[in-house]
Amino acid sequence: MAKVFLMIDGRQVESEPGKTILEICRDNGIDIPTMCHLDGLTDVGACRLCLVEVEGVSKLLPACTTRIQANQVIHTQTDKLKKYRRMITELFFAERNHICAVCVSNGHCELQELGYKVGMNHVHFHYLNQKCDLDASHPWYVMDHNRCILCTRCVRVCAEVEGAHHWNVMNRGVQARVISDFNTPWGESITCTSCSKCVEVCPTGALWSKQTLQGKMEKHPEKIAELMEKRKMSL
Amino acid sequence: MSLLDIDERILDVAKLADIVKSPIVDNKDLPEVDVALVEGSVTSDEHYHEIQLIRQRSKVLIALGDCAVTGNVTRLRNVFSKEEVLKHAYVDLPSNDSQGQMPSHPALLKLHDKVIPLHEAVKVDYFISGCPPSADTIFYVLFELLNDRRPHLEQEGKLKYG
User: How far is Cα A231 from Cα A229, in angstroms, rounded to an integer?
Assistant: First the structure.
């Protein structure tokens, strides 16, 4: 297959056509922060952290859902992009109630790591302090909306990998919530198979296993990519 | 009190600085200072006036710890109204039997509706987050400031939440 050549951050890189900007950046060791992207799942471009500048395009494009084209000139680390990445990270922290000190995922949290990466020493925005529910009706797992960033990894892993499509998203804007079935308690769900894939892919402490102490919830979202590779091999 | 976590390095700090007010120094008033480390969030009128005073009297103000930087656990009450919070604590809790009353003595501090981090009340120069904050970072910041250098805290390794 013909190779495609393009410039990323002043470096010439080559690739097979059809890849996304994020894939080619990761292949070439160029670091772009992401939250909603997870290897093994379909990309939706929800978190906007991977926005990049493409010369000749007036708006910023999400690297995870934009396919490369020959001779594109892409910038991934400009001051403007860095400013937006920090702003997005601060908005994650300001929208709901992320209290790291009492969270099961403290120390193993992708949102914390993102904050460190973008150099977030404090949040410039006012905290929204919105009241969020916690659903502990499932016998083994808990959904705490206070810690959810709406990346929808749980929704996609349930629909695409488990095939149950138990999770959904309801409402818009700051009222948006990940819901179980038709916004009914998780423990009453007839579609949930209790497979725990949603818990494993959740980047924060929003989905967690019961009887987990503060800072003890370690997750393995990389298992999903492994599982998808094994499924491909067995076909 | 997290300042004490820097252990024997407090001797290095003491060589370069006079510690004029802290939980380990018995001094009621805050004189004019070069550096003030402030723990905790702003939850009441008393805290608000105190942080204004500290800002006026210090050249460099450092928010120390997650409560000062983000509000942390103290901010959990912000999803309820002040009345709900006070009524729950002083009237509704089973330990209050039926005698519980809302506190109203004029000498008591007056809770604000919402808990805010320090930087929403005054200008903050440096932020040392963490619950508890890292002793190494506290010492790094103090040592840099005492040697007339600017500490750089917006980098991996120096940041810590929770």
Answer: 5
pLDDT category at B101 given cuts 50, 70, 90 is: confident
Interface test with A, best of B85, B159, B160 (most A CBs within 10 A): B159
CB contact under 8 A, B73 and A101: yes
Q: Which domains does chain A have, with CATH numbers?
A: 4-77 (3.10.20.740), 93-219 (3.30.70.20)
The interface residues of chain B toward chain A in range 39-98, judged by CB-CB distance below 8 A, are 63, 66, 69-73, 75-76, 78-80
| pTM > 0.90: yes or no | yes
The yes-or-no verdict on residue A50 having pLDDT over 80 is yes
- B19 contacts chain A (CB < 8 A): no
Q: Which domains does chain B have, with CATH numbers?
A: 2-76+114-146 (3.40.50.700)
Rounded Cα–Cα distance for residues A197 and A46 (Å): 20
- Going by their DSSP bridges, the two strands A61-62 and A51-54 should be labelled as antiparallel
Question: What distance in Å separates residue A217's CA from the closest CA in chain B?
Answer: 14
Q: Does residue B127 sit at the A interface (CB-CB below 8 Å)?
A: yes
Confidence of residue B15 (pLDDT cuts 50, 70, 90): very high
Which residues of B fall within a CB distance of 8 Å from A100? Answer: 66, 72, 131, 161-162
Give the pair of three-digit tokens for residue A132: 């969020």
H/E stretch holding A209 reads strand A207-209
**pLDDT at res. A148:** 98
Across the range A191-214, mean pLDDT stands at 97
Do B162 and A119 count as a contact with CB atoms less than 8 A apart? Answer: no
Q: Who contacts B61 (Cβ-Cβ below 8 Å, separation ≥6)?
A: B36, B38, B54, B55, B118, B122, B123, B124, B125, B126
What's the token pair of residue B108? 């008591």
